[in-house]
Amino acid sequence: MTLSLWLARHGSTEWTEQGRLCGWSDPPLNLGARTQAGLLRRRLAGLDFDGTWTSDLIRAAGFAELAGVTARPDRRLRELDFGELEGKTWSDLDTGVQESLAAVDGFAAPGGESVADLEARVDAFIGELDRGNHLIFTHGGVIRLLGRRRGLALAPAPGQMTILDWEGTMAAETGREP
What we know:
Blueprint: E1 3-9, H1 14-18, H2 31-44, E2 51-54, H3 58-66, E3 72-73, H4 95-103, H5 115-127, E4 132-138, H6 140-149, E5 161-165
Parallel strand pairs: 1-4, 2-3, 2-4
Antiparallel strand pairs: 1-5
């Protein structure tokens, strides 16, 4: 048996729709998230998981609840802490910050955390999982990080599901509907 990660990005918020960096800020889910959660609920109907997990932020935990999933919260599944950049849009950032953030490796948010810090906490979480299928409600940055480890340039939309086979070959599902 392998370790399969069923990664659900949290549903829409006003900030995600405006392209704002949410990080550890926790804007509430909007009405679009209810529709996304309903689609995900139907997709997951009848499936069994060896573990169900969620970031402790309400936009992920609340999305799991709306999708009809009882999930254990884990702080390590949070998005990158963007510190002073929280709430800013891409166009609000100066060119140097844009270039550093786009490069990913070596990025450290002023007053927040580095990508290396994010990697360390996500790795610690993944390292504790037993083999099997695990449903994880998390954030775009966490999913992008895990996708990069599999050679994928993922950009999951709010409410989107991505499936990664963590130990063997990789399989990923993408698309707007979960």
